[in-house]
Design a protein that fits this description.
Elements (H helix, E strand, L loop, with lengths): L7 E3 L6 E4 L5 E2 L10 H13 L4 H10 L3 E5 L11 E5 L2 H4 L8 E2 L29 H43 L2 E2 L1 H17 L16 H9 L16 H13 L9 H14 L1 H11 L3 H32 L3 H17 L6 H5 L2 H13 L5 E6 L3 E4 L4 E4 L4 E5 H4 L20 H6 L25 H18 L2 E5 L2 E6 L5
Parallel strand pairs: 3-10, 5-11
Antiparallel strand pairs: 1-2, 4-5, 6-8, 7-13, 8-11, 9-10, 12-13
Helix pairs in contact: 4-5, 4-9, 4-16, 5-10, 6-8, 8-10, 9-10, 10-13, 10-16, 11-16
This protein binds protoporphyrin IX containing FE (HEM).
InterPro entries: Cyt_P450 (IPR001128), Cyt_P450_E_grp-IV (IPR002403), Cyt_P450_sf (IPR036396)
GO molecular function, one term: metal ion binding
Keywords: Fatty acid biosynthesis, Fatty acid metabolism, Heme, Iron, Lipid biosynthesis, Lipid metabolism, Lyase, Metal-binding, Oxylipin biosynthesis
């Protein structure tokens, strides 16, 4: 795909440019922001309630006949700063958001809304820093070193964590015939994440300042309220007419005061401070970072960036795979058991790279269900942004945004059944050419995070653990069946 954002050329006798160098017509950006405050409130109600996601985006794409348009991003006024964006919904226009020369990424993870910095100890975590800030280079470099040190622990610790989850699922299925599978997976992956980074289990009662069995609720109490203004309310459809106004007022209208979560936040700080001496020494000596700032970043990267994404992604991986045919699941299980057999019975980094079916099935979940669906960036200069069929003038300072689940289904790139989960999509030579369009990490799946870009620091860590999850499931089972949020059957391999 040609992604060049071409320079405009002037049509003869015309006051302004009418086409780009690539011959695309320059169009006025459709859509708008409406009356101050009321327009933003209207878009927010449509986003969360009357239209919902993804219909909100699709309805406007159809209405404006354009994959680029103006809209108010949530949460917005009256309780938050106005958040007007130019939305980009195709693979070509989205490229501008990955170009750090063209967009600034300072304080715009969710547009103009930034949670109270007290949630982060008064510091701006790496994800809020622009590539032009020296601190970005230092903090991201520090996190790379922490992740490098975690490598020897990833495979054994992950296996241990999920084996316990599988034992418990099996016991639950025997007893109840079905089991809500998300909770246990979430607790196990949180403990795994922290163990991988710090080399201590936060729930172990012998560990200093441990968070005990309530580790998940403590961490969630700290994390959930800061991003509540942009989260959909988990209300059953039937109760929406009654509860929606209350949820809207409580969740999306004003920020949640930090004071409410301060005690839990302080418990997490105490635990990390007591158990991260090695990492903080590294931050101080190798990167010249202040220990407290490094600590806050370590906490946020481990609990929010990493586990926050994992706890959304992993249930989707299980659900998507359970939705595939018994034949596909058997084929996957055979691939996994063959690769594990060739490496002495357990999964190793080498065995993961010898499983094309497994890799493809995971990329396909990341294409369809990217856990962080929106990214933002502010135009550093006046820009021409090209979609597949038109070009648009964006002014310096305007906020650009995207919604990846729509971009991941761009029919101009994923030409065959883009709306369907096809676990074999990325297999073979042609399939491999599509891997670059898997963009969950704020960069192509074929790209690498560096200290000079804004691609997810944990891209390779996450790709590995997502593949490991599938490998561990399908080395033990040949078929997984899910109904809604319930796991209803786990079938061991018939020829094991
Ligand atoms: C499913 C899991 C994950 C998802 C969906 C995810 C997604 C993302 C996305 C979309 C961004 C870019 C945000 C933006 O600039 O708009 C990002 C950045 C980042 N992620 Fe991840 N991430 C995940 C796991 C991890 C892990 C395991 C780590 C480990 C430390 C991590 C650390 C970071 C950091 C530090 C940044 C900021 C990068 C920078 O400022 O250059 N993430 N992540």
């Amino acid at each position: 795909m040609g992604g060049a954002q071409g320079r405009p050329s002037k049509a003869e006798g015309d006051a302004g440019p009418s086409t780009t160098a690539n011959g695309l017509p320059i169009r006025e950006i459709p859509g708008g922001y409406g009356i101050p405050v009321l327009g933003a409130v209207g878009d927010r109600l449509a986003y969360f309630w009357t239209e919902g996601i993804p219909n909100f985006y699709e309805n406007r794409r159809k209405k404006f006949n354009s994959t680029v348009y103006r809209m108010n991003m949530i949460p917005g006024p009256p309780g938050f700063p106005k958040n007007p964006v130019v939305m980009l919904l195709d693979q070509k226009s989205h490229k501008v958001l990955l170009d750090n020369d063209k967009v600034e990424k300072r304080d715009c993870i969710t547009g103009t809304f930034v949670p109270d910095l007290q949630y982060f100890g008064g510091y701006r975590p790496t994800v809020y820093l622009d590539t032009s800030e020296e601190k970005h280079t230092l903090l991201k470099g520090f996190l790379f070193e922490v992740l490098k040190a975690s490598r020897p622990r990833i495979f054994p610790e992950f296996r241990k964590s999920v084996s316990e989850v599988f034992d418990s699922w099996e016991a639950g299925l025997k007893k109840e015939g079905k089991i809500k599978f998300k909770d246990e997976l979430a607790i196990a992956t949180l403990r795994f994440n922290i163990k991988a980074v710090l080399n201590v289990d936060p729930a172990d009662p012998t560990v200093e300042a441990n968070l005990g069995k309530g580790v998940k609720s403590t961490v969630m109490t700290w994390l959930a309220p800061m991003f509540m203004p942009i989260a959909p309310a988990p209300i059953p459809r039937l109760l929406k007419p009654v509860l929606a106004p209350v949820a809207e007022l409580v969740m999306h209208t004003f920020p949640v005061p930090f004071i409410l979560v301060k005690p839990k936040y302080e418990q997490v700080v105490k635990f990390f401070r007591a158990n991260s001496k090695e990492q903080l020494d590294l931050a101080e000596t190798q990167f010249g970072l202040n220990r407290d700032e490094a600590l806050q970043n370590l906490m946020f990267a481990t609990c929010f960036n990493s586990w926050g994404g994992i706890q959304i992604l992993f249930p989707n991986i299980i659900k998507r795979l359970a939705s595939t045919s018994p034949d596909f699941q058997r084929e996957l299980s055979e691939e996994v058991r063959k690769a594990a057999g060739e490496s002495g019975g357990s999964i190793t980094p080498a065995s993961l790279s010898s499983m094309p079916l497994l890799q493809s099935a995971v990329y396909e979940v990341l294409r369809m269900d990217p856990p962080v669906p929106s990214q933002f960036g502010r135009a550093r200069e006046d820009l021409i942004v090209e979609s597949h069929d038109a070009a648009f003038q964006v002014k310096k300072g305007e906020m650009l945004a995207c919604y990846l689940p729509v971009i991941g289904r761009d029919p101009k790139v994923f030409t065959s059944d883009p709306q369907d989960y096809n676990p074999k999509r990325f297999v073979g030579e042609e399939g491999q050419k599509l891997v670059q369009y898997v963009l969950w990490s704020n960069g192509p799946q074929t790209g690498s995070p560096t200290t000079t870009n804004k691609q997810c620091a944990g891209k390779d860590f996450l790709t590995t653990v997502a593949q490991l999850l599938v490998a561990e499931v399908y080395s033990r089972y040949e078929r997984v069946q899910v109904n809604g949020d319930n796991l209803v059957a786990l079938s061991p391999p018939s020829n094991a």
